[in-house]
Amino acid sequence: VFPSLAQAQASVANEVYQELGQPSVFLFCPTEYCSSLCTPSPSQSCYLQTIGQELLPGIGVIWTGPKVVSQELSAVLLEEVEAVLRRRPVIWDNLYANDYDCRRVFLGPYMGRAPGLMSRLHGLLLNPNCELQANFIPIHTLGTWFRSELGSCAHPGHAGMEAVAALGDSHGGQDGSYSPQDALELALRDWVAEINQQALEPGR
User: Which stretch is the leader sequence (predicted)?
Assistant: First the structure.
């Protein structure tokens, strides 16, 4: 019926999206959802070009970055993806994911994401560790990064200054930008306080 997989997927996604009344949040995960899965590259992928052309503009498209688990996300890559998809991508961030390797638990700060990235995104989803308690630092430092990004969007020349003021402490870089190390220290401080609080509860 369809000349390509991309046209088939876009047609089905469009029909479901319209049948549901075009909801404000409707996400589509393409078969090529990161650069390493694209042939030969995101901008030259016939599959992604078709998805960008055929998929209705109100549908968000999920992207994980250069790889399935991406150590870095750059503005240059996101510009390339936005151009071919004809919309800003929704990042499905697998930085902390460990469902593929239960021996891996990443407790470091949210990092490797270029400053000013939020303005190039339609949204960001964090795929956490499978172990619930291990996600305090990932979620806490993501929150610090997000506040810094909000500050840079409000004052492009003073990135993150509002976030630093909101934190009530100097947990940013010297120029007020996001500092993964400072974010980690802030998260650890709050996590220890949370653990101590739980230790005082009856039955603990």
Answer: none
